[in-house]
Amino acid sequence: MSITEYNGSALVAMVGKNCFAIASDRRLGVQLQTVATDFKRISQVHDRLFIGLSGLATDAQTLYQRLMFRHKLYQLREERDMKPETFASLVSAILYEKRFGPYFTQPVIAGLSDEDRPFICTTDSIGAKELAKDFVVAGTASESLYGACEAMFKPDMEPEELFETVSQALLSSVDRDCLSGWGGHVFVVTPTEVQEKILKGRMD
């Protein structure tokens, strides 16, 4: 088993019309043994920017603390929040810095940039960015997430339809992956509000 699959995870970010959704499963496992069923993989950087970290849970928490430290320094120096594109470059730089002993994690970054354009991106464990205009996925359930998102995605979805689409994609995918699951955690972000919802899924 790969070390990135040790804790299991499923992450997906999807764009809509001037909004985006980011969702993850809630299971924390040690290989096939479930340790927690309310694990948070998605964190809010500021009102318009979120990051989800799949992979080894300990590395994900360490990386998140480093990123928040750097973001707070940026806020103090610049007196403004970091743009999603800038934050993605910061994540990439921090991961590449540690390329000879990498963090075993795959980040998913989602935010609203200027003119309320949704921005989503993912990187690998050494910081190579992959930008997308529709959706990005990460984690042990990524293969089934790709299939579900390809089948369900439509451009310019409104927030309600986007929530429904990303939720159905997540729940149907984690059912096909024994290392992730136990419901879902979904954020739908528009220029005016952040909606957070918990999904109930199969509890086995």
UniProtKB/TrEMBL annotation:
Belongs to the peptidase T1B family. The keyword Ubl conjugation does not apply. It is found in: Cytoplasm; Nucleus. The keyword Nucleus applies. Pfam families: Proteasome (PF00227). Its main location: cytoplasm. Component of the 20S core complex of the 26S proteasome. The 26S proteasome is composed of a core protease (CP), known as the 20S proteasome, capped at one or both ends by the 19S regulatory particle (RP/PA700). The 20S proteasome core is composed of 28 subunits that are arranged in four stacked rings, resulting in a barrel-shaped structure. The two end rings are each formed by seven alpha subunits, and the two central rings are each formed by seven beta subunits. The catalytic chamber with the active sites is on the inside of the barrel. Component of the proteasome complex. One of its GO terms (biological process) is proteasome-mediated ubiquitin-dependent protein catabolic process. Non-catalytic component of the proteasome, a multicatalytic proteinase complex which is characterized by its ability to cleave peptides with Arg, Phe, Tyr, Leu, and Glu adjacent to the leaving group at neutral or slightly basic pH. The proteasome has an ATP-dependent proteolytic activity. Component of the proteasome, a multicatalytic proteinase complex which is characterized by its ability to cleave peptides with Arg, Phe, Tyr, Leu, and Glu adjacent to the leaving group at neutral or slightly basic pH. The proteasome has an ATP-dependent proteolytic activity. One of its GO terms (cellular component) is proteasome core complex, beta-subunit complex. InterPro entries: Ntn_hydrolases_N (IPR029055), Proteasome_beta_3 (IPR033811), Proteasome_bsu_CS (IPR016050), Proteasome_sua/b (IPR001353), Proteasome_suB-type (IPR023333). Signal peptide: none annotated. This is Proteasome subunit beta. Keywords: Cytoplasm, Nucleus, Proteasome.
